[in-house]
Amino acid sequence: MKRNFLKIRRTSTATIAACLFLTATVILSNGGEGPSMHDQSSLVVYAFSIPLSSSSLPRQFSSESSIDFSTSILYGGFGSGSGGCDRKRLSSSYFSPTSLHGGAISSPATDNNNASPSTASTITKLQSTISLILLDRIFKRILQYMNIAFPSSLAGCGFLLSFFLLVKTGSGGGVGPVLYQFLAPGAAVLARWLPVFFVPSLVMLPLSAGLGSSIEVLKVVTVIIGGFLFSLLSTSGAVIATQNIFSNKNDSNDDGGNDISVSSASPTSELKPKPKPFSPDTVKTLSVGAALTGILGNLALRTTMVPPILPPFLLSAHMLLTTLAAFVFGSNLPPSFVKICHPLVTCTSLTWIVAFLSSVLSSTGASFLSILSSYRTGTPYGAGDILLSLLGPSVLALSCQMYDRRKLVRDNLLGVGAAILTGSVGGLFGTAFLVRLLRMADPVLRLSLLSRNITSPLAMAIAGLVGADPSLAVTMVVVTGLFGANFGASILDAFGVQNAAARGLGIGAAAHGLGTAAFANEEDAFPFAAIAMALTASACTVLVSVPVVKNVLLKIALG
Questions:
Q1: For the whole model, what pTM was predicted?
Q2: In whole angstroms, what is the distance from residue 559 CA to residue 556 CA?
Q3: What is the DSSP string of 264-313?
Q4: CB–CB of 402/531 below 8 Å?
């Protein structure tokens, strides 16, 4: 009983920490403009009052006006909704480039509300985001209870997408679309910050086990880069070939939803400077917060007059704010630089630099590696642990992006099938051929590379199935994803791949979650990347689970 209580308390603490972090990031998403003083109590109440049924709604939001309620909260209002709004226009607004880059979502005039427009918008985003966090916890508990060894976030993503598509009541809409409209604002917030949730895995790379001699390291780099190029180009090529073969479909009835080319900017838009993803105030606020918590944390270490938990808490907050500030700074760099050096690389490098400087200035003599060890501790309080705890809800939120572009996906189902087949079979067996061709000395290293293009949770499962080292397999996955996030778009551009479906499916199959996060700005390619990431990982896991397939794979890899 005591053990279960501690487990529940630990999970609850992690959830609260993630919610507090997201309260700050949602406010920062509004350009640093939080609610006014008289609206703060309202903000807290609405943020945690998650409507799960019509009985929990205020009277003006009865079941007869559920669509009006979801429309109202989409626009940030909590008064009576303005019925008759265009739902398609509402849903697409949350996943436009403006919404993903922090632009303000315009709202129509609303009735007299207690909250100002900025406060109402913040409340809506907080409600939606916290709901996604809680849903992720629910799916995790369900899969644990059913003893199913499958990533709960991927399972939840598939369930939510199916729910959005299938659960309908009446001719005017249904529960599925209403739930989608409620979760869409939070999904947009998580999509905007999605890349930074992968940073802890990159920050921890210096703690990974060595790969052996320099020759072996060179072979590993060859497999990662060569394998990525093979998966990216073969998958995108398979998609384009499939579309060309079945291009005899009549496109005259299209309404523009299946335009699968990367849209180019109009001459007028090219003259306007593209707004930075984050406001200067966001960068300043995070940087000042990181500096203050670092100073206070080091001062707390020098005295015994403070509670023992305070110094590690302040230093953890210091590293968390440092990571966020570095990510925002990297995202705001000139586009010409970002195209060469992805914000993930900038963020990881700056986090390492700050950790090194902290070790030099530390009053306790902490080393660089010991500071990195405290970055991700396996507790709810580590900076890396807080960021990683939001990765599950972010994957869950991908269902909203897929639903938002459902017509585009539906019109390219054959391409999706070709991509999953090429990405899974080609990824596994292509890598097996390559590690054998290079005659890598360590058999465990050969097997750990087989899951290089598969998202981390399932890569660990595959490592266990084939007898590889799970931690080494995750390292290979992270390095592959980092390379794909940094160079994937440029490589596709260099090869003239402008088809959104081919771009998204290619990067999702070749660089899993990190590559998918890097394509968050390509609103047509992004849903395909999410689909490819989830389905390629699932297909690879199913293939390796078949004894005959696994034996053939091991025979090819080990000889």
A1: 0.69
A2: 5
A3: PPPHHHHHSPPPPSS-HHHHHHHHHHHHHHHHHHHHHHT-SSS-TTHHHH
A4: yes
